[in-house]
Structures are given as C-alpha cells and as structure tokens.
Amino acid sequence: MGGTAFLVDNTMFYGLKLTILEPKPVTAKIIAVLVATIVSYVLNREWSFRTRGGRERRHEAALFFLVSGVGLVLSSAPLWISRYVFHLETPDVSLVTQEIADFMSAQIIGTLIAMVFRFWAFRKWVFPDEKAQSGSMRLAPTPDPTDEAA
What we know:
Layout: H1 2-17, H2 25-48, H3 57-85, H4 95-126, H5 130-136
C-alpha cells in the first residue's frame, strides 16, 4: 500500500513538476499527495486494515482524509522550507543542486515524516483494533462476598 502510494506520489510529482507546474513545485507536491491519498485510502481499507475498524465508511473516510490532510502538510513542509527558507532553487544554486534538494526534502524527508505520522494515526483513530477497544472497556471482576479470603 505504502509502496504503491509512494510510486503514485513520485510519478505525479515529477510529471507535474517537470511539465505544467515547473515553477510551482510545492503545488505539484500537494496535487501528487492528494492523488496518492485517494489511492492509499482504497488500498488501506481493502487490504491493510480490512479486519480493523467498525465505523461507518463515511466517518472512517472523513477521519482518513483529516489525518491525511495533516500528513499532506507534513510531507510538503520540508520542500517548502528547502525552496523558500534555504533558497535551494535556481538561480541561487545549480539545477542539479535544486533537484537533489527537492528530491531529498519532498520525496525522502517529507514522505518519511508523513508516513510515520499517518501509520500511527491510522492505527489509533481511523482503523482502530475493535477487539482491543471492546476488551479495554470490561470491568474487573468483583470479589465474591462468600469467599473466605475476602
């Protein structure tokens, strides 16, 4: 699931960044992540977490896309910082340096940060383990009043 979404993200990002959105790499990244997020939801729901959950699909999807929205910010922030804070873009640096910085910040650092956050948040809130939740709600047994040790 993650590997497929990563490929979708990379393909869309570079397809847009090297063509119609060349002067706007952060916009290209946001669009790529949005498309990869839709693919990710379908794959996570039907494959990774198919035995987890228990919520209505609308509620689950809303939580998924809310968590993914935070992930979108986390994955785009390193690229934004690289380009607009550190000015790692032409003409300040060479085209090779710009492309390496874009790849490292967007596709490596941003993806890793967002991936860790999303995996944790999906397991915790979007696709919780229903058995663990229902098990944690049980009350402890009370001692039997006829028990001599009591």
